[in-house]
Amino acid sequence: MDNYILQNTRGASLTVSCQGARILSWKSERGEELLFTSSKAVFDYTRPVQGGIAICFPQFRKQGTLEQYGFAREKIWCYEKDPPLLAGDFNEKECIDLLLKPTPENDLTKIWPHRDVRVEGLEFRDYLDNLLQNKRFTEQGNALTFESEVDRVYIETNNVTVFDHHHQTRKTFTIRKEGLPDIVVWNPWKEKSRVIEDFGDEEYNHMVCVDAASLENPITLEPGQEWTGRLELSLRNFC
């Protein structure tokens, strides 16, 4: 598998795979891994890697006419040596551009969608519960905690914060986003972990998926139109 490693001057690093443009690793300046990837993940291009940060596009799960989670995470992306200039401040920041290009075999125009962890910033937001046939509810708690399987889409959210006190070093992750109004929260818990082939039986204790998306109101582009989505993760450690 072709991977690219970005590293800043302070030693923090990011590993990006050409398979689905997935971020496989994010390490702090101390070399501490901050992203979950299953110990049973498969890296042979036969299936999406279980873990990291994926691109689910143009649909999430089966909420569309394409394959589950869309085609983007299944395809091989290519490195762009001379990317177009992007808006924003990229001074002293490492960047890489991976593009998904049409090929004779891949015509994109035709397929064009009990833990010490809590998530805050979702209170009083409506959500669709995938475990209850996507019925709509309103979050009443001040924070979402995990004591069983969770598979929800929170609608029209602001930025959210994930507090992880599971490790000796307490961590707080802040998720800021633009163009992606919804938030997906998923943890398979005990029973489902044991039936997911490329997921360890006890690994639900070491991860939670918190992803930005646009599901309630899918984005439709006419020829020539553009759309930009932005997702920013930041970390704060509490020793």
UniProtKB/TrEMBL annotation:
GO terms for molecular function: glucose-6-phosphate 1-epimerase activity. InterPro entries: Aldose_1/G6P_1-epimerase, G6P_1-epimerase, Gal_mutarotase_sf_dom, GH-type_carb-bd. It holds the Pfam family Aldose_epim. It catalyses: alpha-D-glucose 6-phosphate = beta-D-glucose 6-phosphate. Its EC number is 5.1.3.15. It is an enzyme of class 5 (isomerase). The keyword Nuclease does not apply. Keywords: Isomerase. It comes from the Eukaryota. Belongs to the glucose-6-phosphate 1-epimerase family. PANTHER family: APOSPORY-ASSOCIATED PROTEIN C-RELATED, GLUCOSE-6-PHOSPHATE 1-EPIMERASE. This is glucose-6-phosphate 1-epimerase. The lineage of its organism: Eukaryota, Viridiplantae, Streptophyta, Embryophyta, Tracheophyta.
